[in-house]
TrEMBL record:
Membrane-crossing segments per the record: none
Taxonomy of the source species: Bacteria, Bacillati, Bacillota, Bacilli, Bacillales
Protein's recorded name: Bifunctional protein GlmU
Keyword field: Acyltransferase, Cell shape, Cell wall biogenesis/degradation, Cytoplasm, Magnesium, Metal-binding, Multifunctional enzyme, Nucleotidyltransferase, Peptidoglycan synthesis, Repeat, Transferase
GO CC, any one term: cytoplasm
Region described as Linker: spans on this chain: 231-251
Family from the record: In the C-terminal section; belongs to the transferase hexapeptide repeat family. In the N-terminal section; belongs to the N-acetylglucosamine-1-phosphate uridyltransferase family.
NCBIfam families per the UniProt record, alphabetical: glmU, PRK14354.1
PROSITE patterns attached to this UniProt entry: HEXAPEP_TRANSFERASES
Catalyzed reactions per annotation: N-acetyl-alpha-D-glucosamine 1-phosphate + UTP + H(+) = UDP-N-acetyl-alpha-D-glucosamine + diphosphate; alpha-D-glucosamine 1-phosphate + acetyl-CoA = N-acetyl-alpha-D-glucosamine 1-phosphate + CoA + H(+)
């Protein structure tokens, strides 16, 4: 196989999106559209990828980083003009070049690989990726000869009734012999109503030169969908979400209701895990095997080990070890590490906390900037008082300790091993190992005093 190159056109402003965000940076399943394209090319080990940028060039470069080259199209003068901006990177090279678009995020590695192999097997100068549509209105039609080669691409407005009856359309995606592409590009004219230079004209130029031009039909026309407005963005999102869900189900994940389950790109899930309805797994999240996630679980950039159960909870930038349970209604914030066989219950909030093996925080507690050991029991209503208005301080509760209900642990403070803290205490000094700490006012009862207090009459 020859060396493979790619030009990704991503310079259009995308005014129909009606957005401050540059069009190709709008996300589909949590990843910017242009990044889907570049990641697919990376998985194919394409040697040179040149992204042609214009509007929003800085933000595109900040998103994609240094793994691709960038060419700037200062004026928007058509697709051929955009490709020509990559001349300094590709013009002298041999091999095959893809021409792709940053707003066509659904193209799969399988489709592009099949297109590439067909192009090279045919020894063609150019191969057009086509699609057959039930209603091809508005698209350029592919006119083939008896041998199946492409004779011309006729735009809908210029087509006769006979040509309009053709349902095979040009997707605008191509494979070119790289040297023949650049030879054709210099011959493209802008003698059209728009005064622009179009890559489509390269097809006619190559045909006139006696070169072989062929077409490869995409198995799934939806993959070639371009995104120009918010409605098409939602269609692309739905398509990719379905594709992601199917891939996980084929790999042994049970998704009870795929229509109400949202899995973003690059999420990994182990076999025999069950995703309940309302689950949202965002980018950077990994789920182990034999887990139950949901209902209504929202995980972002969270690492979940095997055998974990999470329900009705939000986890962000966190880690959950094997056999732990989280929820319902827990909020696990960045920097938290939940140890194996732990229990994090309802209305518990954790932030930048390390929770040891077998520890229980069953309900109604806040644990922040803390290190909780193994086998600890945190009673209902416990709060780590970690912020003094200027600095966050750390709380340490060592192995085997018991923290009674409605306890305030005023950091910095350490509760030793196997210690007890009595319910209702406010602890602002360290508690030694094996000690019982009681920090509350002694109860005083005053007989009959309640009768001296003003009361509303029963009539009121």
């Amino acid at each position: 196989m020859s060396k493979i190159h790619a030009v990704v056109l991503a310079a259009g402003q995308g005014t129909r999106m009606k957005s401050k965000l540059y069009k190709v940076l709008h996300p589909v399943c949590g990843k910017p559209m242009v990044q889907h394209v570049v990641d697919t090319l990376a998985s194919m080990r394409v040697e040179d990828v040149v992204v042609v940028v214009g509007h929003g060039a800085d933000t595109v470069q900040a998103t994609l980083g240094e793994r691709v080259a960038y060419a700037l199209q200062k004026e928007q003068l058509g697709t051929a003009h955009a490709v020509q901006q990559a001349a300094s990177f590709l013009q002298a090279k041999e091999g095959t070049t893809f021409i792709l678009y940053g707003d066509v995020p659904l193209l799969s590695e399988e489709t592009l690989t099949a297109l590439l192999h067909f192009h090279e097997d045919q020894k063609a100068a150019a191969t057009v990726l086509t699609a057959v549509l039930p209603d091809p209105t508005g698209y350029g039609r592919i006119v083939r000869n008896d041998s199946g080669e492409v004779m011309e691409i006729v735009e809908h407005k210029d087509a006769s009734d006979e040509v309009r009856a053709i349902k095979e359309i040009n997707t605008g995606i191509y494979c070119f012999d790289n040297q023949k592409l650049w030879n054709a590009l210099v011959q493209v004219k802008n003698d059209n109503v728009q005064g622009e230079y179009y890559v489509t004209d390269c097809i006619g130029i190559l045909r006139q030169a006696g070169e072989k031009v062929v077409a490869f039909e995409a198995a799934d026309p939806d993959e070639t969908m371009g995104v120009n407005d918010r409605a098409q963005l939602s269609e692309a999102e739905a398509y990719m979400r379905k594709r992601i869900a199917v891939r996980h189900m084929k790999n042994g994940v049970s998704i009870i209701d795929p229509l109400s389950t949202y899995i973003e790109a690059d999420v990994t899930i182990g076999s025999d895990t069950i995703l309940q309805p309302g689950t949202y797994l965002r980018r950077g999240t990994t789920i182990g095997s034999d887990c139950v996630i949901g209902p209504q679980a929202d995980l972002s950039n969270t690492k979940v080990a095997d055998g974990v159960t999470i329900s009705y909870s939000v986890l962000v930038d966190a880690k959950v070890d094997e056999q732990a349970t989280v929820g319902p209604f827990a909020y696990v914030r960045p920097g938290t590490e939940i140890g194996p066989q732990t229990k994090i219950g309802d209305f518990v909030e954790l932030k930048n906390a390390k929770i040891g093996k077998g520890t229980k925080i069953p309900h109604l507690s806040y644990v922040g900037d803390a290190e909780i050991g193994e086998g600890v029991n945190i009673g209902c209503g416990t709060i780590t008082v970690n912020y003094d208005g200027a600095v966050k301080h750390k709380t340490v509760v060592q192995d085997g300790s018991f923290i009674g209900c409605n306890t305030n642990l005023v950091a910095p403070v350490t509760v030793g091993k196997n210690a007890y803290v009595a319910a209702g205490s406010t602890i602002n000094q360290d508690v030694p190992d094996d000690a019982l700490a009681i920090a509350r006012e002694r109860q005083v009862n005053k007989p009959g005093y309640a009768n001296k207090l003003p009361r509303k009459s029963k009539k009121e």
